[in-house]
Amino acid sequence: MPRFNIQHITTYHYQGLVRDSANQIILYPLKDKYQEVLNHEITISGDPLVDVHKDYYGNEVGNFTYSKPHSELIINSVLSITTSSKPLPVDDMFAEMQWQELARLQYQVPYIDYLKQEYFDGLTELQEIVQNERHSNVTPYQCALDCCKYVYENFSYIQGVTSVESTLDEVWQLKAGVCQDFAHILLVMLRLMNIPARYVSGYVCPNRNGMRGEGATHAWAEVFIPNYGWLGLDPTNNCIANETHVRLAVGRSFSDCSPVKGVYKGPIDHVLKVAVSVGYEDGTTNNAPLEEVIEAKPASSFSRNSYMRHMELIQQQQQQQ
């Protein structure tokens, strides 16, 4: 049962004084028999009151407002957690029966949300690839593993070529990106097969074995397997996400799981920086340096219009590795 000590620091630097910084944080790890939170503390500049609730997907979500004028906002999450290995699917049920079971889930809550797929220009091409990957005598579990392998082998892992604003079209044309992009492509493939699939944000915490995204914020997918439940698949590393992956949140896509996002009133320029460090059982620490992520222009009002949503996406840019 590995234990990890994780520190996740988000820092906003503003060009001048800003106020009424309203933020949403999803930095609270999911709790179940495979993840036990030993200790978790979140400190925020100005010590604002954080209102915590559970959203539609079962994630703990915090909301706070820092009203006083400030030129910097720091959100520091310090987490101590143990993880346990989840048994893998036995996969001894006839493939046809499993596909029939999935077909019955198409119009059931909550699976409907995890089966919807928005159109993008590469969808037709990807549908043809998916059809070649799926065979009637192959179980959903095996198809999911094949899709995970396809993304790993056909997309290049290159940091900096995409951002949180990158569309599926851009990722598909580039055939490159980071963990967030790999997860989104895998979600498309699984949903095209009518397999419910959801996005997962969190951390990957292996013991220095060279996995991509080690000691940083990370993203992968979970697929629903009949007679089993949700199984994590990490296409960035072509592996099953298990005790080395710490889960923060699940949703349809990154927009449902962003660790930090918000709006504020004040000067238009800001710089967002993110750093994650993972402490291992032997006492050593894998540190990710605090790196400049993005400069952005905020919305000046709090109305939920399309411009506001666009700016929220810009402001939630995170270092995904």
TrEMBL record:
It comes from Hufsiella arboris. InterPro entries: Bac_transglu_N, Papain-like_cys_pep_sf, Transglutaminase-like. This is Transglutaminase family protein. Residues 171-237 form the Transglutaminase-like domain. Pfam families: Bact_transglu_N, Transglut_core. Gene3D superfamilies: 3.10.620.30. It comes from the Bacteria.
